[in-house]
Write a structure and sequence with these properties.
With 258 residues, this protein is of the alpha+beta class. 29% of the residues lie in helices and 30% in strands. 31% of the residues are buried.
């Protein structure tokens, strides 16, 4: 069965069953259908499932802005060529003061404290002066009326147009290095500035993900474009793979997210 082959565990099986259900709903009823907001890992799982089912078009991922991390998977009937972000999501904004010290975690916690599930919440964009949150349209009015604080900080929330969002600049540090092999432990050691032994321990402990999937094999191959993350450590992308040095080591360029 397709779900059994595609899902790594029960939670992923439930997610993928939901994706197939929305796809079938669109096909049978000839109306648009969509999921909630999906994490990058969930998006990758959904894409792999759709490819396995030979479904190559008729859907789109939307997140409210170009570089959005969390996105909604929208299935479109044959009569609909495009989908607009505004049909599925809204943006809420509130002013902050630097001394408030409000973090992404504070904002997410306060939203979920209002019984809003994670699938209803897209990206949370935080700057010293402002917090902006993308949410499903069906909870926007409720949050406007009830989301009044994050921790001890009072919030005055307003709805804003998606095209007026202030997108924080992603800070990255470029790391040029050479590795003996394009194994996960070797590349992770370079990207996280730790020993290869420590990297292997993190991988074996299940704390490392490659392309948003947990990978427990230190010798797993890594390729250009792969994203590596480790809980409590950070995240980086293998941006470029170069040639071999005189000593037979491979040149790499990493972009570590700060």
């Amino acid at each position: 069965m397709l779900l059994d082959r595609s899902a790594a565990d029960a939670a992923e099986r439930t997610l993928l069953a939901h994706v197939l259900d929305k796809c079938e709903q669109c096909r049978v009823r000839n109306v648009p259908a969509h999921t909630g907001f999906l994490s990058p890992g969930e998006q990758r799982s959904a894409q792999e499932l759709l490819r396995a089912a030979a479904i190559r078009d008729g859907y789109v991922f939307l997140g409210g802005y170009e570089r959005a991390e969390r996105r909604v998977l929208c299935f479109l009937p044959p009569w609909q060529e495009e989908a607009a972000d505004e049909d599925y999501m809204a943006a809420l904004s509130c002013a902050l003061r630097p001394q408030d010290g409000v973090t992404h975690r504070d904002l997410l916690g306060s939203l979920m404290g209002l019984s809003i599930t994670r699938s209803k919440i897209g990206d949370i964009l935080v700057t010293p002066a402002r917090a902006q949150v993308i949410v499903s349209t069906d909870v926007a009015d409720y949050l406007l009326a009830n989301w009044t604080g994050a921790g001890r900080v009072r919030l005055r929330v307003e709805r804003v147009a998606l095209d007026t969002l202030e997108i924080p600049q992603q800070k990255v540090k470029e790391i040029r290095d050479t590795v003996a092999t394009l194994r996960l432990d070797a590349v992770a050691a370079s990207g996280f500035s730790i020993s290869r032994t420590k990297a292997a321990e993190l991988i074996a402990a299940g704390r490392v993900q490659k392309n948003y999937r947990e990978t427990t094999k230190p010798d797993a191959p890594v390729a250009q474009g792969d994203v590596i993350s480790a809980r409590g450590v950070g995240k980086f992308e293998l941006a470029e793979v170069g040639g071999l040095s005189r000593k037979g080591r491979t040149a790499i360029l990493l972009r570590r997210y700060l």
